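Suppose you are handed a protein chain with no further information: no name, no annotation, nothing but its sequence. What can you learn? This example shows the usual starting point.
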Amino acid sequence: MHKNFCTDSKKLFEILNSKFTLENPPFRGGQSLKQVRQFNYRGTTRIMRAKGRDITELFGYSPDDHSSTARDARNLQKCPFSSSSCTKTNHDKSIIYGVCSVSEGSTTNPGRDVIICPKRLYHNDLKIIQNIAIRTWGERFEFISGGSMEDLRNKIKTSSNPNVVVAFGHNSGKEISINAGAQMSMDWILQTYNNGMPKEFIGIEVQSIDITGNYRNNHKFYMNSTQDIRGDSLIAPNSEHGLNWANVHKRLIPQLIRKGNIYKNDIRCKGFYFILPEVVYERFENILGYIKEQEGSNRNNITIATVSLESSPSEGTPRKIKFNRFITYSIESIKEAFGSWQSSGANSLLNEILMSVP
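A reasonable first move is to predict its three-dimensional structure. Written in structure tokens, the prediction is:
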């Protein structure tokens, strides 16, 4: 038996029958070990993830990933997917949150983790965007991305392949903007070139979802506790975030319709793609209801590509992103469905409210 067993057992007994305040906590986090699932008699407990809503990726890695790669990412506070500073900050930019994804609800269902930053989708050198290019034109085109507009021009000129597809978007040339009654920026446009001459193009919109509430305490716990995991640790407090589902019909769908109207009137356009998390698209489906699917992508249609995070790999490795499904609708059918959408029983609810005022 370990020589400190009796002493440590007595310590554990005292802790389990006490409650401490945040002002005078016995261990990091201000909770008693009554809430900790595992205790090591050598004096170290493992960091335990929140039982409810939780941050699921912090600067590209699981918040309980203690590998040197993950710790370096937190210390540098840079986005590992876009090679730039993280833009997830508080209102005065004094705190960089670095949150890539959160749980939809309980952390027992990792398949429901939700990407809340679109840059998360740029993992592995724009692999998701490259896959859309291959789906449209096949593999005979060289995919060119990254750098300034001048860099892209030079890459086209020096390519050994006469057929290239060039990505215009974040950190790749620039986002193409037009003034069509109002300033409108296209997330990504992929354009093919043959011997340097522009040929066809597709439009791609990339969307995650915003949160409501906040994950402040959840974030603070992980950032403090993952710097040094020696010593007694605690269960992370639940995050207080929600998901801004209202934006799906307030902003996302109208944006798709406006951009779809632009693309469908250009004969060089080969299609319009909308990439978003599967969890978010499910809410999109509920709003629009049944819409007849179309065969193949073209300028009159929009192809929705849903994605999700794969299961957590070993420490020090970001989770991969996979496609779940591709669904193609006509722009006109989405416009019609959105214009005629009404929540079930909405008229009754309105009447009930009006009958009760003032």
